[in-house]
Automatic annotation (TrEMBL):
Protein name: Miniconductance mechanosensitive channel MscM
InterPro entries, per database record: MscS_porin
Comp. bias intervals (Polar residues): 37-49
Mechanosensitive ion channel MscS porin domain location: 31-130
UniProt keyword Nucleotidyltransferase present: no
UniProt-annotated stretches for the region Disordered: 30-49
UniProt superkingdom: Bacteria
This protein's UniProt keywords: Signal
Length: 130
């Protein structure tokens, strides 16, 4: 029983040490300015380098969190997106395209231009998404 209580207390004491908050970007920038301004401090170069790398790490951390949130959104939305794309595919495949036999040449050319511009617009949108 004593061992269990000792382990429980040990875990409770270590938890705040393990969950130390990440310093904010403004805190690090302020510390970096202070370190750069104190020219006669020992190890000033190492301190500024460490603070600069911490700022870089914080920026990379923020970017990684943003990317992971985007990835998670895509993963979460994937079933809805595939269902919507399948529905659109069914709608497109059920459309009856006009047979060009009874249409005048001017109207056929107009349809070709419309389809071509629609394809160009879709290609542009697709390129923007990538």
């Amino acid at each position: 029983m004593r061992l269990f209580i000792t382990l429980l207390l040990g875990c409770l004491l270590w938890q705040p040490a393990l969950a130390a908050p990440v310093p904010t970007e403004t805190q690090l920038k302020q510390e970096l300015k202070q370190a750069e301004s104190s020219k006669n401090a020992p190890n000033q170069a190492e301190t500024t380098e460490a603070l600069q790398s911490a700022l870089n790490w914080l920026t990379e951390r923020k970017e990684s969190q943003t990317r992971s949130e985007q990835y998670q959104r895509v993963i979460d939305d994937f079933p809805k997106m595939t269902q919507e794309l399948r529905r659109q595919l069914v709608l497109e495949s059920t459309k009856i395209l006009p047979n060009g036999d009874d249409l005048p040449a001017a109207e056929l050319e107009q349809q070709i231009l419309q389809t071509s511009s629609l394809l160009l617009e879709q290609a542009r949108l697709l390129q923007q998404e990538q």
